[in-house]
Design brief:
This is FERM domain-containing protein. By secondary structure, the chain is of the alpha+beta class. The protein has helices spanning about 1-30, 35-55, 60-70, 80-90, 120-130, 160, 185-200, 210-225, 250-260, 265-275, 355-375, 400-410, 440-445, 450-455, 465-475, 480, 490-505, 510-515, 520, 530-535, 545, and strands spanning about 95-100, 110-115, 140-145, 150, 165-175, 285-290, 295-300, 305-310, 315-320, 325-330, 335-340, 350-355. It is built from 21 helices and 12 strands. Helix 1 packs antiparallel against helix 2, helix 8 crosses helix 9 (about 250-260) and helix 8 runs antiparallel to helix 10.
Length: about 550
């Protein structure tokens, strides 16, 4: 009642002043028409009886007009122009939404974005918070109503992708670089290491005992630095996470290797970590549940080189991107058209059955994005026009070629960042849906040496080499030599001379010394002083003999 007294009094004043204004206007301007005077009379006559109804017909506009009249001190009739109401629309508050992003170190980042903002706005805010420039390898994920992982499309509005529920996201690696050494900044390699360590802990990246120990030792060196006998007492790595099923034996082996990395910087340790991790057979493979034409459960894996087919933990087929002509889906079916082989004349189409329509479309999008990022120089523009057959979805980011060009132009001092502890990684840390849970991974890819036995031929190496062979090649030769740093200099020189002489003899395939003195000379080499390392090397594939 009190809010309407002000406007009523103003209306009465207007009614009393209206006849005088009409007479003055008629005397000063003879061109005033009778229609105008009649309109004023009609307003004066209709105003007292119509004041309650005109303000209560629309509650939303009623609030708007009431606020405007209170600020200006005028009635709505005295300010009918649209130009005077436009400032009130400009000053109207923009609706925002709260976003929570789980980062790779398990910390959370909260920010507010406009409700109509696109995904690129949120992604740029997260990368700015992380001080990350090489951001094209990363992305944001969210879980839908079926607890399935979905990638946030940067070209679409966020509210159109998340229909209900809170806006919770996870910052993860989307495109795993085949050669991490080509990354420019240490901070980018650091976040890639965090992602790979999370993949190992959750079982998405299975590896052998030797690989677990090697990667774990590099992780300890990157976090704790050089071994210090006073600071690192007892089992100082027991609180850190390295494997899904971590054992005391693994921790002891990690500590033994960590003691040999004297003088290695955290950046160098992460480079060694990535050089060994990239050779794992499941590195960068995004898995999707499916069934083949016979109804047998399989897994479809998308990676930088193409599409992989797994059955019973074994890779049964591989389709490289150059061999695939077309990728499509219809309802819950996913199809790939294959280029004819050397002895074939016609193209062939292979179909797979996905759990539902959303799963088929999700797999199709992942294939489109991986093919565009790794194979094309620049992304294809989306189709224009009203009559467009099929989906308009296209990858809108930069390709790997464009990313490398942009990385070469980075000119800033190395950013300072603090490396977090890996003990934050737990089995349920990530938001990757069922593919991140160890149970679902173990159904098709056992986290252990058995998976390594079945995946001997790596996707990124040349030829077929086993896991243990890659580890022998990539393990630095300084590991064995550093064990003798605490001995006198003459002993070190003798060991170095014996190593050089042994190398020369091994380079001569026809030398009789290789066959005659091999058994006598090998025990005198420094490698014999670390028998544990040599004995554990074949442990990468122990199931070959047992099975």
């Amino acid at each position: 009642m009190t809010t309407e007294t002000g406007p009523d009094s103003e209306v009465k004043n207007v009614q009393e002043e209206a006849p005088q204004q009409q007479l003055e206007a008629a005397t000063h301007s003879p061109a005033a028409t009778a229609a105008g005077i009649a309109s004023w009379d009609a307003e004066a006559n209709e105003k007292p009886g119509a004041q309650p109804d005109s303000r209560n017909t629309e509650p939303g506009t009623d609030m708007e007009e009431k606020d405007y009249s209170e600020t200006d001190g005028l009635s709505d009739k005295t300010t009918p122009s649209k130009t005077q109401k436009s400032p009130q629309k400009i000053n109207k508050k923009v609706k925002s939404a709260l976003c929570r992003v789980t980062l790779l170190d398990a910390s959370e980042y909260e920010c507010e974005v406009e409700k109509h903002a696109r995904g690129q706005v949120l992604f740029d805010m997260v990368c700015e918070h992380l001080n990350l420039l090489e951001k094209d390898y990363f992305g944001l994920t969210f879980c839908d109503s079926d607890s399935q992982k979905n990638w946030l499309d940067p070209s679409k509005e966020i509210k159109k992708q998340i229909r209900s529920g809170p806006w919770n996201f996870a910052f993860t690696v989307k495109f795993y670089p085949p050669d991490p050494a080509q990354l420019t900044e240490d901070i980018t390699r650091y976040y890639l290491c965090l992602q790979l360590r999370a993949d190992i802990i959750t079982g998405r990246l299975p590896c052998s005992f030797v690989t677990h120990a090697l990667l774990g030792s590099y992780a300890v060196q990157a976090e704790l630095g050089d071994y210090d006998a006073e600071e690192h007492v007892g089992n100082y790595v027991s609180e850190l996470r390295f494997a899904p099923n971590q054992t005391r034996e693994l921790e002891e082996r990690i500590m033994e290797l960590h003691k040999t990395y004297r003088g290695m910087t955290p950046g160098e340790a992460e480079i060694h970590f990535l050089e060994n991790a990239k050779k794992l057979s499941m590195y960068g493979v995004d898995l999707h549940h499916a069934k083949d034409s016979e109804g047998i459960d399989i897994m479809l894996g998308v990676c930088a080189n193409g599409l992989l087919i797994y059955r019973d933990r074994l890779r049964i087929n591989r389709f490289a991107w150059p061999k695939i002509l077309k990728i499509s889906y219809k309802r819950s079916n996913f199809y790939i058209k294959i280029r004819p082989g050397e002895y074939e004349q016609f193209e062939s189409t292979i179909g797979f059955k996905l759990p539902n329509h959303r799963s088929a479309k999700r797999l199709w999008k992942v294939c489109i994005e991986h093919h565009t990022f790794f194979r094309l120089v620049s992304p294809e523009p989306p189709p224009k026009g009203f009559l467009v057959m099929g989906s308009k979805f296209r990858y809108s980011g930069r390709t790997q070629a464009q990313t490398r060009q942009a990385s070469a132009l980075i000119d800033r001092p190395a950013p300072f960042f603090e490396r977090s502890s890996s003990k934050r990684y737990t089995m349920s840390r990530s938001l990757d849906g069922e593919f991140s849970r160890p149970a679902s991974v173990s159904e098709n890819h056992d986290a252990g040496a058995e998976g390594e036995k079945q995946e001997e031929d790596g996707e990124f190496g040349s030829g077929r080499r086993s896991e243990t062979e890659d580890e022998e090649v990539t393990t630095p030769t300084k590991i064995k030599e550093l064990k003798f740093l605490d001995k006198p200099e003459d002993v070190l020189l003798k060991h170095q001379a014996s190593i050089n002489e042994l190398k020369r003899t091994l380079k001569e395939p026809n030398s009789k010394l290789v066959h005659r003195d091999r058994d006598r000379r090998l025990p005198s080499s420094p490698a014999s002083s670390s028998p544990k390392h040599e004995e554990e090397t074949p442990k990468g594939t122990p199931e070959k003999a047992s099975e």
